[in-house]
């Protein structure tokens, strides 16, 4: 039995998410990103919550291309380090993709630093495929992989 | 005669924008935001470029609410400190609003820290009105004003 639930983010989750995000994505502006996605794509922003303690264990953010509404983007996923290996990430991904499909999305892409082998391995297990490598994508000097998956 | 032009952002502008943004919005994740907006709302991302030197003088980012496509958001505007008071901001705002109107948007909102009097004054001159104040909006502890304008 799961002891956590995935539910839509609400603005009351913001502070907990900022604290969760800082050690995971230091300097990557989570506190700014959350506020924008909350307004622009409220249905594509999910959190996993411990059903007993109500602790936020992780989150996922998505978006849809304005000029190409069948293409979705997995913007970011973060799971607290002491909540990893509990399938939280899989449930977050499933919730996001279900909602994207409801909105007519049939292809999702994401960007990952080419050095982030844990994340790359996670995404490959979820059915993503590596489409492209792009040098110096992140400022000032980190390369990215673009991964894609049909929904 | 203008000696700058406003044009759509391209990914070749990214590094110059990161350098321009850092002193203006330190710690506010511009380098991350630019990459996401580049993919999600490419038509709502403009830069002002000096037509002689090709220096990037400023930028503006917008988005449209996925669940309410008549509502636009002015996500961020930044003008290099030595390019301010040259009407660059006004031209960037005009370009964004023209494109938003083309896309069917009839109302734009934005968020500004309630302490940022220079920005608030700029927006009020552009026809925005203050709609709401919200405590502790930015993590960890800054309040915001929500401003709105009919297009």
TrEMBL record, chains A, B:
Pfam families the UniProt entry points to: Acetyltransf_1
Domain N-acetyltransferase: 4-151
Taxon lineage: Archaea, Methanobacteriati, Methanobacteriota, Stenosarchaea group, Methanomicrobia
Transferase as UniProt keyword: yes
Protein keywords: Transferase
Presence of the UniProt keyword Transmembrane helix in the record: no
Protein name, entry field: GCN5-related N-acetyltransferase
GO MF, one example: N-acetyltransferase activity
Alphabetical list of InterPro entries matching this protein: AcTrfase_GNAT_prd, Acyl_CoA_acyltransferase, GNAT_dom, NAT_camello-type
Organism of provenance: Methanocorpusculum labreanum (strain ATCC 43576 / DSM 4855 / Z)
